[in-house]
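hiii so um. not sure if this is the right channel but i have a protein structure encoded as tokens and i wanna go backwards to a sequence. like what aa goes where. can anyone help
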């Protein structure tokens, strides 16, 4: 111990688990644990630390035997329990010869009863009964309402339990609740007029499509939509998640049919509308089906392969498409079933049938295997194939199953002597059917019992037909009481368990209260019409669930769809006032989309994703996943599915991710216990190789096979895993330096191995000019994802160039410097020689550079911090806040930061400009609170105060600081110094300020210029009246003249005549003598916006730069070629401001100049571009979304 030290001891809680032992059977015994705790008889429950397993041992009493374990234990030996969840173990002891005890234990969250045959056992939660040795006992489990029986365990396994009582048994009977909880309600509102939702479909990934109509205005997810007030408007929306609605289609002057929307397994949706003449229109494509006046379309569905199944009726002379022209009918109207290509609406197959009466196919549904269930109405005798269907009088209902090729499998009738109405049909997974509708007074399915209505108006019927032959499985009817009872079933669907869900409306036409009982107790409405949802066991018709959609104005449920994981989605309409969906209420009238989640989910979704650059299919060994087309399915919880990935001919399979990440490239087996997703990564066998000549010089890149040969950017698609040899050849006046991107090295050839990891590989060849004075241009950009943004630049008298900015990714700065990896929005500084070769690049963190200047020994950069722990070039800056102003010196030769200063208040402090004056670096900006510049805390007047601070060039020692306040705010924005140390500063003033030259005021945030002598004393000031933007550039000539470049809009006065912009905004150049007297002010521009951001004084002329929107002129003619969203460089007479010449960049997309600097004969400009641009005779090509450029002007 050489000094005081501290040691921390960390203690963590140990988890626990509980074991309970229950003795069963005709005898008793003792159960003990190897760890102290359980000794049962007396102590049968104990909590153990979750650090080691526990072993239980059962010892029978004298004369008894141990018959075995049940519950958490099994077998007849000792029981090993791992330290996981709490456990209950049953120890069964018997006397030999009996009698023996049969004990039933209730499990699960549902309710039900178990009885025995022979009688003796009848129980709910738990019960037992004795039986003599050798007795055969069968158990029967009956679920209570809103519950289902799941299985037997322990003494029995599965859905049946038959025992021979040769010992005592414990049997566990599991019941789970049935029912739904409303999880979300989305409203398509009736902003004006009426909006209703009438159709819904759900794809295997759970994406919902809903269709409806409107007659006023509504909102389909992105703002108000106007509907046709006369004929109505059809709408289709998609919802990928609750609360998210996306408009897919809106079609005027159409009426939605009964089944307007359906979903295919690949996630596509189809919407059908029709006009009053039966003309059907499909979206997508938004095109009418083949049609003439003899055809009337009723329903649509999409089959497993995406084909469009259309049903309806026709009369003689009908046109269903090519191959079905001029059809004859058997008498009145006949029915048709047709299959069309969904993209072209080409007729692929069709069947027709009819009797002398009127027959029509009105509803259709297709299961995932392609089985087609068609239903409709007929009169007389209908020959669908097999035994003709014969109506029992009036209009009857038919239901038929067809193969995917439209070959009839079976057909059945239902009805009575009167007219019967069919409203919906659903196809089960095995090809069975569920149908629903209304009837009065009687109704019977073929082979089923006669249903009788309870009201004279109409009752609801629902029935299930078997898959093999359409035989009647069960049927039931439901109605209210009284002559005005109103009951309508609108739609039917199957759940993944094979249960049947129906939706509709019930109530009373003349009273405010209606009632209906679906088997789980009476539902009572609180208005004349209310919606309902009900579920029945698909095999037995037993009631599972029923609920009302309550409201004080009419509520209607019009359609239902069931997701592969068992979620039920319903659509309909709400009236004005409150509507309660059973836990979620709304007061908005309109169409609704409501999602109901099972109380106890039995199925979960397995979804397949296919990221990567290639393509392929994924197939499951069970269920319906075949992706390609169907990329999700629902699986019973606890089942397994094995997924196999197969690439296409132009790809290879790389790996699994998601829930299959551990499978590598082998088939992936998932045990479904939750919603799961598996990503199959396919990689393309084709890789695009893009070659980009880079650097400040020029040259070409060519492949040895001649696929690539270019002096600008070019590319070629090679087979993945190929090896490509590239050769770089410098142009006259340039030399080759190095490769970048996918190549490396300094020899003129390189080999690129296309390994398939990237769909596009970039190769850069860097060339250097032999004559820098001829001008050059460099691309500064990321070689992959990322960006580069130039914020400031400087030049020294020895013709070296410095830059500062922000970047992210692996950034190539050209020339001999290798690529630099930058994380996040990283600040960087860099140095280039006169020929454009980068000498060094340094990066930092948590800094935003805004201005720079330099001498031959150092680069001085200023800006603001963005977070804690800022630093640059290896030096940390001691900032007090995340928004401080800062200035730093970077060694011009090494890139190392030699000193840095950070200062500010609590937030919003900026250093906006920097200049060298004598032996000091001078910084301008503003602060937003009390600040210590290095000589103690300075007082703060409120608002924002401007400052000018001076620090020693050599070591950053504090020299002086001036803080300027105002009645509102004053911001320091730019500064310039001459060789004598005299300064000109630019301020944005809002309010009244006094900078020791008398009070000056501005209400609009106008520009204030102030001159200072070498001692820092203000000696002139001038307010620029009008809308001068604050992003101005300043320069001071040796004679003390101040030069200003900026941008303005409208009218501005700088002391002479008014300047009036000719477009959105124009650029201006102005000069003031050493005492601030105006010498000239000139504006430049075009009809669109200009921005001037660069000012360099070369002595004989001024160089200005910026961006323009086309039609730009500096007074010597419009730039040619005329370029929109381009950059310009202009040359101006420093004595008069007259334009001398201007050049514009030539680009494919967009270019802009943000910074520039000069020293001696060197002038550089920099900025950003997208696509390609030409400047200083060099064409550059961007590789990312946004690259930077740096150019020396010739």
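sure thing!! here u go:
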């Amino acid at each position: 111990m050489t000094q005081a030290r501290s040691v921390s001891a960390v203690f963590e809680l140990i988890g626990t688990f509980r074991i309970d032992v229950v003795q069963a059977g005709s005898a008793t015994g003792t159960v003990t644990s190897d760890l102290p705790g359980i000794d049962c008889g007396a102590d049968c429950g104990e909590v153990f630390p979750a650090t080691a397993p526990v072993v239980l041992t059962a010892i029978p009493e004298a004369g008894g035997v141990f018959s075995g374990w049940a519950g958490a234990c099994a077998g007849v030996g000792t029981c090993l329990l791992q330290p996981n969840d709490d456990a209950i173990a049953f120890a069964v002891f018997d006397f030999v010869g009996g009698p023996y005890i049969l004990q039933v234990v209730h499990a699960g969250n549902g309710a039900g009863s178990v009885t025995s045959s022979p009688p003796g056992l009848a129980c709910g939660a738990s019960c037992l009964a004795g039986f003599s040795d050798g007795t055969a006992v069968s158990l029967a489990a009956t679920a209570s309402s809103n519950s289902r029986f799941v299985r037997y365990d322990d003494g029995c396994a599965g859905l049946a339990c038959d025992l021979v009582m040769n010992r005592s048994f414990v049997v566990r009977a599991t019941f789970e609740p049935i029912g739904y909880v409303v999880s979300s309600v989305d409203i398509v509102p009736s902003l004006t007029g009426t909006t209703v939702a009438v159709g819904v479909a759900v794809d295997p990934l759970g994406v919902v499509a809903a269709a409806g109509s409107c007659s006023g205005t509504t909102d389909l997810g992105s703002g108000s939509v106007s509907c046709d007030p006369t004929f109505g408007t059809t709408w289709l929306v998609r919802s990928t998640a609750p609360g998210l609605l996306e408009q897919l289609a809106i079609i005027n002057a159409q009426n939605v049919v009964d089944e307007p929307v359906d979903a295919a397994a690949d996630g596509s949706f189809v919407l059908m509308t029709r006009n009053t003449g039966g003309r059907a229109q499909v979206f997508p494509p938004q095109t009418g089906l083949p049609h003439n006046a003899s055809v009337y379309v009723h329903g649509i569905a999409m089959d497993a392969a995406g084909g469009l199944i259309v049903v309806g009726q026709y009369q003689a002379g009908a046109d269903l498409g090519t191959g079905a022209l001029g059809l004859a009918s058997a008498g009145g109207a006949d029915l048709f079933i047709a299959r069309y290509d969904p993209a072209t609406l080409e007729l692929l197959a069709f069947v027709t049938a009819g009797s002398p009466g009127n027959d029509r196919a009105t509803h259709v549904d297709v299961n995932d295997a392609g089985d087609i269930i068609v239903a409709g109405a007929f009169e007389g005798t209908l020959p669908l194939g097999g035994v003709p269907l014969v109506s029992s009088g009036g209009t009857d209902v038919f239901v038929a199953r067809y193969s995917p090729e439209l070959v009839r499998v079976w057909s059945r009738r239902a009805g009575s002597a009167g007219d019967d109405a069919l409203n919906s049909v659903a196809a089960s997974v095995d090809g069975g059917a569920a149908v629903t509708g209304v009837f009065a007074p009687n109704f019977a399915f073929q082979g089923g019992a006669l249903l009788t209505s309870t009201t004279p108006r109409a009752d609801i019927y629902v029935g299930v037909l078997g898959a093999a032959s359409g035989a009647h499985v069960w049927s039931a009817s439901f109605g209210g009481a009284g002559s005005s009872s109103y009951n309508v079933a609108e739609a039917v669907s199957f759940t993944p368990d094979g249960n049947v869900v129906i939706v509709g409306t019930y109530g009373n036409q003349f009273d405010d209260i209606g009632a209906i009982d679906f088997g789980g107790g009476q539902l009572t409405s609180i208005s004349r019409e209310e919606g309902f949802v009900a579920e029945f066991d698909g095999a037995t018709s037993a009631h599972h669930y029923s609920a009302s959609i309550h409201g004080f104005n009419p509520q209607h449920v019009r359609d239902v769809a069931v997701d592969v994981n068992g979620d039920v989605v319903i659509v309909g309409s709400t009236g004005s006032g409150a509507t309660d969906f059973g836990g979620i209420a709304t007061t908005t009238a309109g169409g609704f989309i409501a999602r109901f989640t099972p109380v106890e989910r039995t199925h979960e979704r397995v979804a397949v994703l296919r990221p990567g650059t290639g393509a392929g299919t994924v197939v499951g060994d069970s269920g319906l996943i075949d992706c390609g087309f169907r990329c999700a399915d629902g699986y019973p919880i606890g089942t397994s599915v094995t997924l196999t990935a197969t690439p296409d001919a132009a790809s290879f399979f790389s790996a699994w991710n998601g829930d299959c990440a551990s499978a590598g490239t082998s088939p992936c087996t998932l045990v479904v216990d939750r919603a799961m997703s598996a990503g199959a990564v396919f990689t393309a066998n084709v890789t695009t190789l893009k070659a980009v000549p880079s650097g400040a010089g020029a040259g070409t890149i060519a492949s040895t096979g001649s696929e690539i040969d270019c002096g600008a950017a070019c590319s070629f698609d090679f087979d993945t895993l190929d090896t490509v040899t590239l050769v770089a050849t410098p142009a006259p006046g340039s030399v080759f330096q190095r490769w970048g991107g996918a190549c490396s090295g300094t020899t003129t050839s390189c080999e690129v191995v296309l390994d398939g990891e990237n769909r596009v590989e970039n190769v850069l060849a860097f060339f250097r000019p032999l004559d820098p004075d001829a001008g050059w241009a460099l691309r500064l950009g990321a070689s992959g994802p990322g960006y580069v943004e130039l914020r400031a630049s400087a030049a020294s008298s020895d013709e070296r160039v410095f830059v500062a900015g922000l970047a992210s990714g692996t950034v190539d700065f050209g020339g001999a410097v290798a690529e630099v990896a930058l994380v996040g929005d990283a600040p960087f500084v860099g140095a280039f020689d006169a020929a454009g070769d980068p000498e060094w690049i340094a990066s930092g963190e948590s800094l935003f550079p805004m201005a720079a200047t330099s001498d031959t020994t150092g680069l001085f950069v200023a800006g603001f911090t963005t977070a804690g722990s800022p630093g640059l070039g290896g030096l940390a800056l001691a900032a007090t806040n995340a928004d401080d102003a800062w200035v730093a010196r970077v060694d011009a030769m090494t890139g190392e930061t030699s000193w840095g200063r950070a200062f500010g208040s609590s937030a919003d402090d900026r250093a906006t400009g920097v200049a060298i004056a004598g032996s000091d670096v001078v910084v301008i900006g503003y602060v937003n609170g009390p600040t210590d510049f290095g000589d103690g805390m300075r007082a703060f007047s409120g608002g924002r105060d401007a400052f000018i601070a001076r620090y020693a060039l050599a070591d950053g020692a504090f020299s002086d600081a001036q803080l300027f306040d105002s009645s509102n705010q004053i911001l320091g924005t730019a500064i310039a110094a001459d060789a004598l140390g005299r300064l000109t500063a630019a301020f944005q003033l809002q309010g009244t300020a006094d900078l020791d030259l008398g009070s000056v005021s501005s209400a609009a945030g106008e520009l204030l210029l102030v001159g200072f002598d070498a001692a820092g004393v203000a000696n002139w000031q001038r307010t620029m009246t009008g809308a001068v933007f604050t992003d101005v550039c300043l320069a001071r000539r040796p004679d003390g003249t101040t030069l200003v470049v900026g941008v303005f809009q409208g009218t501005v006065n700088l002391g002479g005549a008014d300047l009036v912009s000719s477009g959105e905004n124009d650029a201006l150049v102005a000069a003031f003598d050493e005492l601030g007297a105006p010498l000239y002010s000139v504006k430049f521009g075009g009809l669109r916006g200009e921005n001037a951001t660069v000012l360099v004084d070369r002595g004989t002329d001024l160089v200005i730069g910026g961006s323009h929107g086309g039609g730009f002129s500096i007074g010597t003619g419009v730039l040619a070629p005329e370029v929109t969203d381009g950059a310009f460089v202009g040359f101006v007479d420093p004595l008069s401001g007259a334009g001398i010449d201007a050049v514009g960049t030539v680009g494919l997309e967009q270019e802009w100049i943000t910074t520039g600097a000069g020293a001696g004969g060197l002038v550089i400009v920099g900025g950003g571009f997208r696509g390609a641009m030409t400047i200083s005779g060099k064409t550059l090509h961007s590789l990312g979304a946004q690259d930077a450029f740096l150019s020396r002007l010739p």
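oh and DSSP finds no helices and 106 strands in the chain.
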